[in-house]
Design brief:
Helix content is about 45%, strand content about 20%. The protein contains 4 helices and 5 strands, in the order H-H-H-H-E-E-E-E-E. A 5-stranded mixed β-barrel has the order 1-2-3-5-4. It starts with a helix and ends with a strand.
């Protein structure tokens, strides 16, 4: 009788330990799934070798422990160290796109390097990386900026 309880307790402790390991290692769910299988096996052994009521109680207690761990873990110091807590705001100097290229919209320029379909153009005296709408433009050709999306400057030959 003592051996059976030891076996059940071993399954449960090992199962919860494997679930804990899953939090800190990149195992793609293999270790966590193994832990869940061991917990279910422990509950099944309890239900078959002792009584259905004991199995149901153990299953409910295991479920409550897992739910409590899921709810409480994000509040722990370990979890706070695992997740990114800072955001990159404009107030701190972070910018997602360069807005200075918006001024080139509608401007005309000269191709510095052959555009096939990307290359460099001289627009308002500044060298700008550009891309055409799919047309080959030889060096020295005249272009006009038709679209600016972030750092992407789209031009067409004129």
């Amino acid at each position: 009788m003592l051996f059976i309880w030891f076996k059940i307790l071993t399954f449960l402790v090992l199962g919860f330990t494997l679930l804990l390991i899953e939090l800190f290692t990149p195992t793609f769910g293999v270790v966590g799934l193994s832990g869940i299988i061991l917990i279910i096996a422990g509950c099944y052994l309890t239900a078959t070798l002792h009584s259905a009521v004991a199995g149901i109680i153990l299953s409910l207690m295991s479920l409550v422990m897992i739910i409590a761990a899921i709810k409480l873990f994000p509040k722990t110091r370990i979890a706070k160290n695992l997740k990114l807590s800072k955001s990159q705001d404009k107030t701190e100097g972070y910018h997602s796109a360069d807005d200075s290229l918006k001024g080139f919209l509608g401007k005309e320029g000269t191709v510095v390097t052959t555009l096939r379909p990307s290359g460099t153009a001289l627009i308002d005296g500044k060298k700008v990386d550009v891309i055409t709408e799919g047309v080959f433009v030889p060096e020295g050709g005249k272009i006009k900026v038709t679209l600016v999306e972030g750092s992407r400057v789209v031009v067409k030959q004129i």
